[in-house]
Every structure is written in structure tokens, then in C-alpha cells.
Amino acid sequence: MASTTPQEPGLSAVPSYEEEQSQARFDALINQDSRVEPRDWMPEPYRKTLTRQVSQHAHSEIIGMQPEANWISRAPSLKRKSILMAKVQDEAGHGLYLYSAAETLGTSRDELNDQLLTGRAKYSSIFNYPARSWADMGAIGWLVDGAAIANQVPLCRASYGPYGRAMVRICKEESFHQRQGFEILLALSRGTAAQKKMAQDAINRFYEPSLMMFGPPDDQSPNSQQSMAWKIKRFSNDELRQRFVGMIAEQVKVLGMTLPDPELRFDEEKKQWIHKDLNWDEFMEVIKGNGPVNSQRLERRREAHREGAWVREAASAYAAKQAQSEVA
Ligand code: FAQ
User: Fold this and answer.
1) 141 lines ligand 1 (CB under 6 A)
2) Can you supply a Gene Ontology BP term from the record (predicted)?
3) What is the CATH number of the domain that holds 126?
4) Whose CA is nearest to atom 20 of ligand 1?
5) Which of 51, 74, 61, 297 is nearest to 173 (CA)?
6) Ligand 1, pocket-test mutation among 173, 232, 287, most atoms within 8 A of CB
7) Looking at the domain assignment, is residue 28 inside a domain?
8) How many structural domains comprise the chain?
9) For residue 14, is it within any domain?
């Protein structure tokens, strides 16, 4: 049976008997669609790519709280305010499950957090765009959480157990988030001319960045092929993007709004949705840190981390006291 893992350059060309056996056990788990658990041997490149993806995902959830948290105090009613607060809290919870999953791969949460705060880690490009109006809360829920679900439902079957299991709960909550976003837009679409305009403007601004959440086109995605061979990813970036655009092309009709994409159509022959070319130069700039609000997002995160120092100190002091009283 072919190995799921290519030989790393620089590693000894002749693996030992034990190494071969470990790789064979790992390959069997992957090929049988079983799960790899933290106790199992895994090739270092598998551990590395999972740590990369899961921690980037965790950072996205945490940074992703900011655009919406910014609107809690300006929500148009008490009901909208409490729903938005619950959603933002959910995102914090998702970040925590994902950091825990990443920690099972051997990198501490402190180290992962440090990578984020020092700008060494990526997080989703989408959160580097500002949320300018209340309608953006609708567009974020409908388009951003919608794209997140389309991307993440297949991740519930990811080969790494702790990641797949975390995704099950996350997807359930994201699905509620998407509905609340759609419902905000639906209410605006039935409102005054100014409210309709605000909703359309939000859709126009979030359409393209939400399609970019799926990552670069397949022929420019260095990680996809190997991640699919390891059954971390189950579909390619373009496959998921097309699936998502097809879903929203139908849903937008219910809103009586339009997507800002004159080229959007279903190709009967190829049986797939075609959308306009996306601005990948802009995407590359955003993931390099030069998006509209990258520096603002990171600065806010650093500030929140500084402000939270006393909580971490108090929690450590309490844990130390508890440990002492258990010894006594
Ligand atoms: N933004 O080779 P690929 C949410 C990077 S949902 C920034 O294709 P891969 C919920 C990529 O990391 C959002 N960077 O990479 C929410 C790689 O860089 P590296 C988070 C991106 O991993 C909603 C390089 O480009 N969801 O937060 C992006 O095979 C509302 C080459 O790309 C997840 O993270 C991007 N959009 O595929 C919260 C889902 N795309 O590391 C609050 C899990 C690519 O080599 C409010 N992740 N890059 O230096 C995944 O499924 C994958 O990691 C992809 C990228 C599909 C994102």
C-alpha cells in the first residue's frame, strides 16, 4: 500500500524497521477512514500541518469576535443585542475548543498565542475588513458564517480525532449564526428604502472577501493536495467555493437582493457554478498583513491580552493554592 506521507528531504533515506511499522499503522488508519488520536504515532509533517491549520482556525475565531463585538452596544434592539452577544461568546468558545485540539498536537496555547500576538501566525483574511453598518452583522452571519459552514462541515470528518470532534459542535453553532445573519438581512430587505440600500451595500462589500475565505485557487494552493491525501481536507478550495456560491445564489433571491457578480451562472455542461475572477492580489496583501484593518485587529488583540493579565495571574495563583492544599 502506498504511503500517505512523502519522504522529507534531508531525512535518512532508509527508515528503520520501527519507523516503517509506525508509518504503516498510520497509513492504515488514514486509508481505512479511521481516526488518528493524540496517543498515535504520526509523521511530523502531518503534525505540523494540522497544528498550522487548527491554530490558524482558532486565531480566526478569536480575532473574528472583533467586527461583531464592535456592534453589540449599537444593536438596534435588546433582542438583537442579546443574540449578538451570544454569537460573539460562541466564537470565543470555538477558539477555546480549537486551541485545546491544537495543544493535543504538542504546542502549548501560550506558544500559539504568542505566534498570533507577534504577527507570526495567520488568521482568516475575512476579519481584516471593517464592519461599517448594522447590515454588516447580517452579511457577516449569512456570508461569513455561511462560508465557514461550507468549509467546516467536511472537516467534521477530518482524520485527526480532536479536530473532527471539535468541528461537530462548532458547525451546529455556526448554522444558528448563519440563520441569524440571514434573518437580519431579511428584516432589512423588508424595511425602508434606506434599510434595503444598507443591506445591499453590506452584501456588495462582503461577497468577494467571503469567497476568498476558501483559500487560493487550487493551482496556487501549496497545502491542499497533501492535506487531502491525509484526509484532513476532504474537498479542494475551489470545490467548496463553488458549492458555497451556488447556495448563496439561490438564497439571495429570497432576500430580493443581488450578488455583485455579473458573471455568476450555473454551467449546465460542467455542472458547476461559475463566478467572476477574484482579486487574488488583494487576498495576498491581506494575508501578508496589509489589509484594511489588519493592524487595528492585532493591536486590539494585544490590548485585550494585556488587560487580561490579572485574570491569568489570579487563575494561576488559585491553581497553585489548590495544588498545595491537595498535597497538605
Ligand atoms: N485567510 O495551501 P492553502 C471563522 C493561507 S471561519 C488567511 O490553500 P490550506 C468562523 C493558508 O493558511 C474562518 N490565510 O492552505 C467565524 C496557507 O498559508 P501557510 C477560519 C489563508 O490550509 C465566523 C496559504 O494561504 N476557518 O472563523 C486563507 O490547505 C464569523 C496557502 O493556502 C478556518 O480556518 C484565508 N482565507 O487551506 C468567526 C477553516 N486561505 O499556513 C467569527 C479551517 C488560505 O502555508 C465570525 N482551515 N490561507 O503559511 C481550512 O480549511 C484551510 O486552512 C483553508 C486554507 C481552506 C483556510
Assistant:
1) no
2) phenylacetate catabolic process
3) 1.20.1260.10
4) 57
5) 61
6) 287
7) yes
8) 1
9) no
